[in-house]
Design a protein that fits this description.
Radius of gyration of chain A: 28 Å
Structural class of chain A: alpha+beta
Strand order of the largest sheet of chain B: 10-9-11-8-12
Distance between the termini of chain B: 51 Å
CATH topology of the largest domain in chain B: D-Maltodextrin-Binding Protein, domain 2
Largest sheet of chain B: 5 strands, mixed
Low-confidence stretches of chain A: 1-17
Mean pLDDT of chain A: 88
Strand content of chain A: 5-15%
Order of helices and strands of chain A: HHHHHEEEEHHEEEEHHHHH
Largest interface: A-B, 52 and 55 residues
CATH architecture of the largest domain in chain B: 3-Layer(aba) Sandwich
Oligomer: heterodimer
Helix content of chain B: 25-40%
Largest sheet of chain A: 4 strands, antiparallel
Low-confidence stretches of chain B: none
Mean pLDDT of chain B: 92
Bound molecules: glutathione
Number of domains of chain B: 2
CATH class of the largest domain in chain B: Alpha Beta
Strand content of chain B: 15-25%
Radius of gyration of chain B: 20 Å
Number of strands of chain B: 14
Helix content of chain A: 55-70%
Shape of chain A: globular
CATH class of one domain in chain A: Mainly Alpha
Number of strands of chain A: 8
Number of helices of chain A: 12
Order of helices and strands of chain B: HHEEEHEHEHEEEEHEHEHEEEHHHHH
CATH topology of one domain in chain A: MetI-like fold
CATH superfamily of one domain in chain A: MetI-like
Shape of chain B: globular
CATH superfamily of the largest domain in chain B: Periplasmic binding protein-like II
Chain lengths: 405, 337
């Protein structure tokens, strides 16, 4: 803020003051602006130093521990979902990482799902089919207007908890199970030689990229089209498959089995993650759908007619003409929805999903009592995530702006 | 985000509030209402009824302080707090006392800038399971999913206990007791764990209490009692002696019913308790009849216990450890003299 103000001041002086005669150096606008900036910087630093100092002093006076040494202490509590190995014997520092990864997981999945769902609903809202457009309208009005916390509780308690107990799980064969404790899937066990399969997969992707470039170029030069989609699908499926059989099927599965109270082994998707993910996606999708709709409406109808006159089919008109132009309107608004989704993911604590706020700003804060340090770290995380998303979206926005030729 | 912003605001107050301008006693008297941090709803300890009247053992501890300090046990504003919020609320000065089934531990007493006054309920952690499971002992809980409330000693004891017994568990951690109970009831967990007294309290919140059993094992010591900020010894004394007065009153047989009659007693102990002789309230800057007000308006420890968690309540908890020292328990208060 301060800096901004002084930049403005600086500009003002540059613009207006341009005296020919010699003046004392402090009367020179340029110097004076510089002086003010330095003074301001010193003032701001002193202010923060004073606050920090005052805080530490106060905390010590009151007998409250300070500093970051607690991050090395043993945490001693369990966390239900951890993407990296974690036990009660690990440190508070590690609870930070575990919570952070869980926040990133649900946010990233949420952003992907909400975007896909939002686009579908947004386009459906504009469909010429009366039923489809009405249904999309009902979806939007319902989920946009209900408080998110309520929706989270709904998905968690009402829907998921209607599932059967572990002993009466719904199942597909003896491999996939669904019950109140979550979804249980077989987990892959990679054996020697699986590297080849992964390598083949990457190769197929690279080939696809090259193919697409080549096909694009060819189309520009000759106007001939090449079935990129089908070729690529074939490549991506076939190449790894060949590698898989050539190396003697280096993959086996570990299946979940019911032992005592719960299933053990395999991969578990806990209902807390599922409920939070569904709620965040469904809610945010209703907002994204409106953004998509307004974006599409912002492209004048003449464009559609022109494209149709050129003989493009409706699907292609949407994909090649309308969406690229609508994107210019959509992306900036999308950024703020993504940021909201990340922040909303902290509602996790209400249903016990172990995100950063629940694990670190919750349990760790409470067990150590070091509120200021923990909250500062948590805020830093949300700030970093938000800035990263903004940065990425700005870059993408700049890229997809209309390039006038 | 709401929870987070609560804590953030409190943290801000911690940063900005300068050190103890006026004493807590003066502040409470000026405000003419005591701010008391309680749970968000735990039958027997602190629970609001439909009309928003709070009752419970922890609630009565605050009412007793209000009676001693403000001569009116009803001049209390109850602030419901989750386990996670409670210490920050006290540190930041949002409440004057924290009376929320809070366990006295070394860390909390020495590194949060707080002081525990006296244990008004000796508890220990237990387990509640659904009857269907047919579990008889906590030792059979290997692999179970367990509902707990975050920010409690319960979370840590649980990890210790299962490790010691070489068992595995899955912790499902909720924010409030309501959510914990709902999670247990819906079958998300096999077990609900908490301080044993609270299990009895939470059990009556279930739709079908008879479907759940509390296992016999107690796996920890949970001394619960009111907490105040460190650095205000005067206030610390007031809260501490409020609890002592209630325990001493029970020992002397002074109750809310007979306290007026007891004023005629010749027993010097009773006369000192009721402020008829001795130092009275002077050392605490309270009026002479401070303890009389507590007993008259709230009752002695035994009355408070029976009314809230004992035979006069749906919980029907026996006195056990919480009986007086001369009746087989360990409740013991220093003499008033
Ligand atoms: N005594 C333990 C546990 C206290 C605790 O919070 N217990 C839960 C039982 S589920 C409770 O009272 N919850 C009431 C609420 O959420 O307001 C401690 O001090 O950490």
């Amino acid at each position: 803020m301060g800096a901004l103000f002084f930049f403005a001041l600086f500009d003002l002086h540059m613009a207006t003051v341009e005296h020919p005669q010699k003046t004392a150096w402090w009367n020179n606008a340029h110097n004076r602006a510089l002086l003010f900036q330095v003074l301001l910087a010193i003032g701001v630093s002193l202010f923060f130093a004073f606050i920090a100092n005052n805080t530490i002093h106060n905390l010590q006076q009151r007998g409250i521990s300070t500093g970051f040494a607690f991050l090395k202490q043993k945490a001693g509590f369990g966390i239900i979902q951890h993407l990296i190995p974690y036990t009660e014997n690990d440190t508070y520092g590690r609870t930070f990482i575990v919570g952070l990864l869980n926040t990133i997981l649900v946010s990233a999945l949420g952003i992907i799902c909400a975007t896909i769902l939002g686009f579908i609903i947004g386009v459906a809202r504009l469909s010429s089919n009366w039923l489809v457009s009405k249904l999309a309208g009902i979806y939007i009005e319902t989920f946009r207007n209900l408080p998110l916390l309520l929706q989270i509780f709904f998905w968690y308690f009402a829907v998921l908890q209607a599932l059967p107990s572990p002993r009466n799980s719904l199942h597909i064969g003896e491999k996939f199970f669904l019950n109140i404790r979550g979804v249980y899937l077989p987990s892959p066990i990679f054996q020697q030689g699986f590297g080849w399969v992964a390598g083949a997969f990457i190769l197929a992707i690279l080939a696809t990229i090259i193919l697409k470039r080549w096909a694009g170029k060819r189309q520009e030069e000759t106007g001939e089209q090449f079935p990129v989609f089908w070729t690529a699908t074939g490549l991506i499926l076939l190449l790894p498959m060949v590698a898989y059989f050539a190396t003697g099927r280096p993959l086996s599965w570990e299946y979940p089995v019911l032992k005592g109270f719960n299933f053990q082994g395999g991969i578990t998707i806990i209902p807390e993650l599922a409920a939070l993910l569904i709620a965040l996606s469904v809610y945010t999708a209703s907002l994204i759908a409106e953004i998509v709709r307004s974006g599409i409406l912002s492209v004048s109808h003449g464009q559609t007619e022109a494209a149709a006159a050129l003989g493009l089919r409706p699907g292609k008109i949407l994909r090649l003409v309308i969406i690229p132009q609508a994107m210019r309107v959509i992306i900036p608004q999308m950024t703020s929805q993504y940021l909201n989704l990340v922040k909303n993911s902290s509602l996790a604590t209400a249903i016990g999903y172990p995100d950063l706020v629940s694990v670190f700003a919750g349990t760790t804060l409470n067990q150590t009592g070091q509120a200021i340090e923990v909250i500062a770290m948590t805020m830093a995380v949300y700030l970093t995530i938000s800035l990263t998303i903004s940065f990425f979206m700005n870059w993408y926005n700049a890229r997809s702006q209309l390039r006038e030729r | 985000m709401k929870k987070l912003s609560f804590i953030m605001v409190a943290v801000f107050f911690m940063i900005s509030a300068s050190l103890a301008s006026a004493s807590t006693l003066e502040e409470v008297q000026k405000r003419d209402v005591l701010q008391c941090g309680v749970s968000t709803g735990l039958p027997g300890f602190s629970n609001p009824d439909e009309k928003g009247n709070w009752t419970g053992l922890d609630v009565d501890a605050c009412r007793a302080v209000a009676a001693a300090v403000l001569h009116d046990a009803n001049k209390v504003k109850f602030v419901p707090l989750t386990a996670k919020e409670r210490f920050t609320a006290l540190q930041s000065g949002e409440i004057d006392i924290l009376s929320r089934n809070t366990t006295w531990t070394l860390t909390r007493d020495t590194s949060l800038g707080l002081n525990f006054t006296h244990t008004d309920y000796y508890d220990g952690q237990g387990f509640m399971v659904s009857k269907k499971l047919g579990v008889k002992s906590a030792k059979e809980l290997d692999g179970a999913a367990i509902c707990i409330q975050s920010g409690t000693t319960t979370e840590l004891n649980l990890a210790d206990y299962f490790k010691q017994n070489k068992m595995k568990y899955q912790a499902v951690v909720f924010d409030t007791s309501d959510q914990t109970v709902k999670g247990f009831e819906a079958g998300r967990c096999d077990v609900l764990t908490s301080d044993q007294s609270q299990l009895y309290g939470l059990r009556i919140k279930l739709a079908k209490p008879e479907d759940a059993v509390v296992l016999p094992e107690i796996i920890s010591k949970e001394p619960l009692g009111p907490v105040v900020r460190q650095g205000d010894d005067g206030w610390f004394n007031i809260v501490k002696w409020t609890i002592f007065a209630m325990i001493d009153a029970e020992e002397m047989g002074v109750t809310s019913k007979n306290v007026d009659e007891m004023k005629k007693s010749t027993d010097p102990n009773i006369r000192r308790l009721l402020g008829l002789e001795g130092i009275k309230g002077k050392g605490m800057n309270l009026s002479d009849d401070w303890a009389y007000q507590i007993i008259k308006q709230v009752g002695n420890y035994g009355e408070v216990f029976e009314r809230n968690v004992g035979q006069g309540s749906p919980l029907k908890i026996k006195r056990g450890l919480n009986a007086l020292w001369n009746k087989g328990g360990i409740q013991y208060a220093p003499p008033i003299r």
